[in-house]
Amino acid sequence: MEKIYKKLRMAYAKILVAENIKRNKRNSMKTLYVLAITGNIFATPDFLAGVYISSTLSDIKKVRKMLGKALKKGELSPEMRLLLEQLDSVLETGKKAGIYDLKMRLAEALKMLESGMFYDIIA
User: Are 105 and 4 in contact (CB under 8 A)?
Assistant: First the structure.
């Protein structure tokens, strides 16, 4: 569970960075001027935000894979199995998921983990 929690926290941090890059237009214009001068077109704010979004999607995929492996184990209690299934369904996303959707899904998954639902069962 600790690995899942840490991976979700990292994914949430990445999506917040992507959101900040997309939202902060003033700094992105300054960045575009610097990029135009240096000739480095590959580091535009949209490109950088896309990298963070892609990394977030990758982290979510890894967490869902961990959840799938945990669900295949036979020694889970019914309560734990239900909670893992709920967490997996919350993290179910499409490839075209937007920043806001990813942020909300990750926040909900973290809230589930932090609410103590999992820690009461594990402890």
Answer: no
Q: How many other C-beta atoms lie within 10 A of the C-beta of residue 18?
A: 23
Report the b/e string of 45-66 with b at 16+ CB within 10 A: beebbeebbebbbebbeebbeb
pLDDT of residue 12 exceeding 60: yes
The encoded tokens of residue 26 equal: 């003033």
26-54 pLDDT, tens digit each: 666 676 666 667 766 666 777 888 889 99
Q: Which whole-number Å values give the CA distances from 46 to 39, 41, 120, in the listed order?
A: 16, 11, 42
Is 90 exceeded by the pLDDT of residue 117?
Answer: no
